[in-house]
Each structure stands twice: as structure tokens, then as C-alpha cells.
Specification:
Rossmann fold, Archaeosine Trna-guanine Transglycosylase, Chain: A, domain 4
């Protein structure tokens, strides 16, 4: 096994499989200085301003002369004077493929009365505003398996009672985009298949009036959706007592569910993390993409998101759009983000993060090219706004920030009932009521954080497994997880604090 990886014959860089020291030889080029694992080494001399290719795609432009064998990173590579906004051929629909032959894998799911299928069975407590967050948490705390195990002892089919609170809901334009996003997000969670029932707790005087967002979302109170506020109930203590009583009423019915064989077409996975390190686009992301292709072949749905982390690679997605209009919807979101970052005195290349750079990623262009690999190779069938309900089957896109908790919250609101999170630096992410799988990009991370990692894709880098073999393992794990097998984050009790609706617009 070579100490480096070449991804494409036309690439200007190789990726260090293990640490390379000065004087070592890679493809007849002598290495100049230390090259950390996952980082790039130049295979030829590159002049200032010249594009640099990885995956046979431009990942940036040399900011100074780069010698053959030299470390290629932030000191000599940038996105260019135009911030990465150079001409790309969107070639709408050029790579559209025939539908793959339909397959019929099954999992042990929980059928709801409306025909949807759940992978978990929670009771949720949502807050309409930050002012009711403490009361919502106090209701859920009464049913904590850690501090009050007796409360749920008689309800083995209930996965838990979870409070999902947030920091907004007032001091905002009641007709603006921020309120629209918050309403969509809350409605998506209030009706999520993984919740048997939901309580919504408000304060009473907030901008985000419960009755208003229920009406805007075509929702009404019933057996599985209860709403009330602190001011009308008589204060915090009475609100908590009322909430506990309502949950107790729900528990026997919530417990009366069973798991039974269901088509894999009922699985919707959210794809998370653009890329953590230089291995992300080599191992975990393409392996997850292979699993996505399998899921789509079985009639399921996969959601790619994190628009700042597909920036510069969107042309690879537009080529797969089933209609030009679908591809144009994606490009319009890219243009919106360019303007959004401009008016906030930022730039798209603010991402990658410091940790990403330490792991070998240099520019957002490089990160994005690896990120889109999570989406596999099937057709892009639709593009959705943040937290919109996903109705299409197959591979879809949802606009969201790159920040994982915000992005995942939008995906779950859209209906994701399993989450797959690739990581090369390490993640402890959980996302109730949706189980979250962590996929390590390298073996070193997997061994270091075994308690948090669900599967090791570093076997691809180690030469022990192909991308397709790893993808099959991931797909099988998705089915097992959807059937009730606990993820590492669930075993650790993670997922109560990661509910994070996208905050956008002015705080008034």
C-alpha cells in the first residue's frame, strides 16, 4: 500500500495516507518538508494564480509559486480574487440516469395511522418561545430515565419524553422569513412520525403565537397534539403540573405500538457534515453516497443539505437534476448565499473551520467537492427550502446553513427519520427524535472515539475495504438503526440540546 492516494490522473496533488517526511519520494517527486496525514503534496510546479485540481476539479488557485513536492495548504492556496465565483458549466440534466431496478429491503418500523412509518417512538415537548423553555424542560425532566426511571418503567415501547427548546420566538418580525422558518420547523417536529404525541408550551404574549403558526401550518389540537401557555395556565408550577398530567395521559396509547416489517421506502436519511478532514471525500462521504444509491434503489429518500458546503461543487449536482427547473432552484440558493454572506461582511470561504484546515482541507471548494459525494450518483429529483416537508422519493436537496445542528434540525423537520453524520475530526452529535449515526473517515479517529463512532470508514483509506463494500455496511446499519438498534449517541443520552432552528433576520 502506497503512503499516498491519487484520486484522478489529472490531479495536481496527492493525499498523504500517512505522515510524509522530507526526502520521501511520491510518484518520482521528492517531498519537501513534513506533510501531515490527509494533507496535500504538489506533484508538479504550479505558478502563482494557476488553478490547482483535486478530484479533477478546481479546489483553488496558487497564491504563490508552489514547487513539486511542497505542502499545498492555506499558506499557498486560496479561492481566488473572485471568492470562488468563477464560471462553471451547470449542464442541467446532462448526467441523468434511468431509474435503477426497484429493490425491496425491509426494516422493523412503527406504522402510524396516517400511513407513515416511524423509526423511534417519542413524546415531545416543544416551546414556542425561549421564555417557555424552562417549563418545557421541567415537564420532560419528570420522565427522565436517568433521574426518575420509574416514570417510564411501565412503557417499554416509548423511547422517551424529550424537550426541544430554542432561543427565539419573540423580538422578531411576525411576517418575516425568520418567523416563517421557525413556524415550518416547529410544524415539522410537531407532526414528525417519530413522535407519537407532542405538547407545545408557550408563554402567551410572544411574537410566535401558537394559534397563528398552527393555522399557518394547517394543524389543529387533538389527541396527539396539545397546546397551552404559561400565562393562561397560571404560572410555571401549574404549567409543569399540567404538562406532566397530559404526558401521563398519552403514555398508555404511545406504548401500544409494535414494530413490524416495513418497506425501506419509508426511510428518509439526512446527510450531515460536508467534510471534516482530507479523508472525508475519499472514505466516509463516498461510502455514504454508495449507501444512498442503495437506499434510493429500495425506494427511500436521502436529503443533502448545507449549502455553504456544496459551494463550488453545485455544478456536479445540477448535472443530475431531473429537470432544468430543479437545477435552477439549487443555483438560486447558491446565489442567495453569496449575497447573504456579502451583506453580513463574510465570504463563502469562511468555511472550512479551523478544525477542517487542521485535518487537511484548505478551501471551501475542496470541502464542497468531497461533501457532494455523500449524495451518491442517482438523479436529483427536487430542491427544498429549509424545513420544508419532503414529499419526493429519491435523492433531494434542502437548503440550510453548514452548521450541523441547524442543518440537521431542518432535515428532521422535513421528515428525516435517520441521520448519517460523517466526521474526520470527531463528533458527539445526537438528534432526537431521529437516531444519528456517526461515520468515521479514518481509523485513528474511530479507535480514539469508539464510544461515539458507529462505523469506521477508515478501512477504505487503509486498503481493507472498497467504497461499495463500506456502503453496503452503512446501508445495513441504517436498516438496523431504523429497526430500533440504538446508536452510540442514543446510548450516551445525546440529542436533547441539538434542536437549533435557523435564526435569520433582525432581532428586534
Amino acid at each position: 500500500m502506497t503512503p499516498f492516494i491519487r484520486l484522478h490522473p489529472a490531479d495536481d496533488v496527492l493525499i498523504a495516507r500517512s505522515q510524509l517526511v522530507g526526502g520521501a519520494t511520491v510518484e518520482n517527486v521528492q517531498v519537501r518538508g513534513l506533510i501531515p496525514p490527509g494533507h496535500k503534496v504538489a506533484t508538479r510546479a504550479i505558478a502563482t494564480g494557476e488553478p490547482v485540481r483535486r478530484y479533477n476539479q478546481i479546489i483553488g488557485f496558487a497564491t504563490q509559486p508552489i514547487a513539486a513536492g511542497e505542502h499545498v495548504h492555506v499558506h499557498n492556496l486560496g479561492v481566488g480574487d473572485n471568492g470562488g465565483d468563477f464560471a462553471r458549466d451547470y449542464a442541467y440534466g446532462a448526467d441523468v440516469k434511468p431509474q435503477p431496478p426497484r429493490k425491496e429491503a425491509t426494516f422493523m418500523g412503527i406504522k402510524r395511522d396516517d400511513g407513515r412509518v416511524a423509526t423511534r417512538n417519542y413524546i415531545g415537548i416543544l416551546s414556542s418561545v425561549n421564555c417557555s423553555a424552562t417549563a418545557a424542560r421541567a415537564i420532560a425532566d419528570h420522565f427522565s430515565r436517568q433521574t426518575n426511571p420509574a416514570a417510564l418503567a411501565g412503557y417499554p415501547m416509548v423511547d422517551g419524553v424529550v424537550a426541544l427548546t430554542h432561543g427565539t420566538g419573540c423580538g422578531m418580525d411576525t411576517e418575516g422569513m425568520g418567523m416563517q422558518i421557525l413556524e415550518r420547523t416547529l410544524a415539522g417536529y410537531a407532526t414528525h412520525a417519530n413522535f407519537w404525541g407532542v405538547l407545545v408550551v408557550g408563554l402567551g404574549c410572544e411574537a410566535n403565537q401558537i394559534n397563528a403558526w398552527l393555522a399557518h401550518s394547517s394543524l389543529r389540537e387533538g389527541d396527539t397534539l396539545k397546546v397551552f401557555n404559561i400565562q393562561d395556565t397560571g404560572g410555571t408550577r401549574q404549567t409543569v403540573e399540567k404538562g406532566i398530567a397530559l404526558v401521563k395521559e398519552m403514555l398508555p396509547r404511545a406504548n401500544a405500538v409494535k414494530r413490524e416489517p416495513c418497506s425501506a421506502s419509508h426511510i428518509t436519511i439526512g446527510l450531515q457534515c460536508g467534510g471534516s478532514d482530507g479523508y472525508s471525500g475519499i472514505s466516509a462521504n463516498p461510502a455514504l453516497g454508495a449507501a444512498v444509491d442503495l437506499l434510493v434503489a429500495h425506494g427511500g429518500t436521502a436529503i443533502l443539505s448545507e449549502t455553504p458546503e456544496v459551494y463550488g461543487a453545485e455544478h456536479l449536482l445540477t448535472r443530475r437534476a431531473v429537470k432544468k427547473e430543479v437545477g435552477e432552484k439549487l443555483v438560486s440558493r447558491i446565489k442567495w448565499w453569496e449575497e447573504y454572506t456579502r451583506i453580513n461582511n463574510g465570504e463563502m470561504n469562511n468555511n472550512p473551520s479551523p478544525g477542517n484546515k487542521a485535518g487537511g482541507l484548505t478551501t471551501i471548494l475542496e470541502k464542497s467537492l468531497g461533501a457532494v459525494a455523500k449524495g451518491g450518483t442517482t438523479n436529483l429529483v427536487d430542491v427544498y427550502k429549509y424545513a420544508e416537508l419532503i414529499t419526493a422519493k429519491g435523492f433531494v436537496y434542502m437548503d440550510s446553513p453548514g452548521y450541523d445542528p441547524v442543518s440537521a434540525t431542518g432535515q428532521v423537520a422535513g421528515g428525516a427519520n435517520v441521520l448519517c453524520f460523517t466526521t474526520g475530526r470527531g463528533s458527539v452529535f445526537g438528534c432526537k427524535p431521529t437516531p444519528s449515526l456517526k461515520l468515521a473517515t479514518n481509523t485513528s479517529l474511530y479507535k480514539r472515539m469508539t464510544d461515539d463512532m458507529d462505523i469506521n470508514c477508515g478501512s477504505i483509506v487503509d486498503g481493507e475495504e472498497t467504497i461499495q463494500e463500506s456502503g453496503r455496511r452503512i446501508f445495513d446499519l441504517i436498516l438496523a438503526t431504523a429497526s430500533g438498534q440504538k446508536t452510540k449517541s442514543e446510548a450516551l443520552g445525546i440529542g436533547d440540546d441539538e434542536f437549533e432552528p435557523w435564526k435569520i433576520g433582525a432581532t428586534m
